[in-house]
Design a protein that fits this description.
Layout: H1 12-21, H2 26-34, E1 38-40, E2 46-48, E3 50-51, H3 53-68, E4 75-79, E5 85-89, E6 92-94, E7 99-103, E8 118-125, E9 130-133, E10 136-137, E11 139-140, H4 155-166, E12 173-178, H5 182-186, H6 191-194, E13 196-197, E14 199-200, E15 208-209, H7 218-225, E16 231-235, H8 238-248, E17 255-257, H9 262-268, E18 273-278, H10 280-286, H11 302-312, H12 314-332, E19 335-339, E20 345-349, H13 351-356
Parallel strand pairs: 9-12, 10-14, 16-17, 16-18, 18-19
Antiparallel strand pairs: 1-2, 3-15, 4-5, 6-7, 7-8, 8-12, 11-13, 19-20
Length: 357
């Protein structure tokens, strides 16, 4: 059987083994494969695909159009850019304003910053068919990413939205797409640094999010790092970037915010010197460290651990994160600085200094 998203052929034996291993009926698994909803791994494990912001915007737009047509809507089916049908729940709606919202379902891809975010659309009668970008949609501010000043909605997504809306509503209509938390969420991503401001992009080539992908923004990371040749700083977020500039006088223009993709950014950078700026929880994630395994008292998260150890055993705290900084440094061939929430350095390790000794 052929996976309609990837084009990969699944042997019959793999499908049977996966169904048995995951306690799912054979026929049910076949249906999931046909819908592009799952990926089968060689070991028989099943991973669930998610839906891109483009698919969610299309679903919200079609649901809003159905409301404008006077129809009830709790779930909506759309055709993705590759022709595969996707059915999604309508998370919220307002009949009076013909507004519908769909929540981003990232499937088993745990690194998606947009997971759980609402993407909304409002429909109203208009002389012609039109799509308008509202609040929370990113605006392109830098050449090379599209038309400067235009909303970052990919052209094939615009065509896909139009085709799906016209399935249920004839005549002129304006669809306004907006993301209530788009601007807030985008601030903690690489988007502002690359030149997309005010919100998130509406994109997605196939309409599906692959559950094993390392980065939906690898092309953005590539763009950010390519022209920095001497020294580059890669931060996990806005806070660690700010601390790097304030506490270490690191030039802000040399720092990119890479979120969950710091290691990828370091790998792709050709700069002579590379520096990672991170927070305690993030360095634990990058090294796949469960801090609970290293301390014999209860705490709910890494932030709580840091605050407790500041009061009872500050040296142990610095030793722990100093060790993690060293491990990450040797893993990535970069200098590493770990800041707490107030900007204090909890741990650091410099390959540059060590290699010069």
């Amino acid at each position: 059987m052929i996976d309609p998203v990837s084009g990969r052929e699944y042997p019959e034996e793999l499908i049977k083994r996966a169904a048995k291993m995951n306690n799912i009926g054979y026929d049910a698994l076949i249906e999931h494969i046909k819908k592009g909803r799952v990926v089968l791994l060689e070991n028989g494990r099943i991973l669930k695909r998610g839906y891109t912001t483009g698919t969610c915007a299309t679903a919200a737009s079609k649901a809003a159009a159905l409301l404008l047509a006077g129809k009830e809507v709790k779930r909506v089916e759309v055709t993705t850019p590759i022709g595969v049908k996707a059915e999604m729940n309508v998370a919220s709606l307002d009949k009076a304003s013909c507004t519908a919202c769909v929540r981003v379902d990232s499937g088993d891809y745990k690194g998606d910053t947009f997971s759980g975010m609402l993407i909304c659309a409002k429909a109203r009668r208009f002389p012609v068919f039109s799509i308008r970008a509202g609040k929370g949609i990113g605006i392109i501010k830098r050449p090379g990413l599209g038309k400067v000043g235009a909303p970052d909605i990919y052209p094939h997504i615009l065509r896909n939205i139009e085709a799906n809306v016209k399935e249920v509503l004839s005549g002129g209509v304006e669809i306004e797409i907006f993301v209530p938390d788009g601007e807030k969420i985008a601030k903690n991503t690489v988007l502002p640094a690359v030149g997309i401001e005010g919100g998130i992009p509406i994109f997605g080539a196939t309409g599906f999010i692959e559950p094993y992908t390392r980065n939906g923004y690898k092309h953005v990371i590539d763009f950010l790092v390519r022209d920095i040749k001497d020294v580059i700083g890669v931060s996990t977020g806005a806070a660690s970037k700010r601390f790097a500039t304030e506490k270490l006088n690191f030039p802000a223009e040399k720092i990119i915010v890479a979120g969950n993709f710091v290691c990828y950014a370091i790998e792709k950078s050709k700069a002579k010197r590379k520096v990672i700026f991170t927070m305690p929880a993030k360095i634990c994630d990058m090294l796949d460290i469960d801090a609970h395994n290293h301390f014999n008292f209860e705490f709910s998260n890494v932030s709580e651990l840091v605050e407790r150890l500041k009061k009872i055993d500050y040296e142990r705290l610095k030793t722990f994160f100093g060790t993690l900084a060293e491990r990450l440094s040797w893993k990535t061939d970069a200098d590493v600085y770990v800041f707490d929430s107030s900007g204090e350095i909890l741990g650091s390790f410099s390959r540059t200094v060590k290699d010069e000794k």
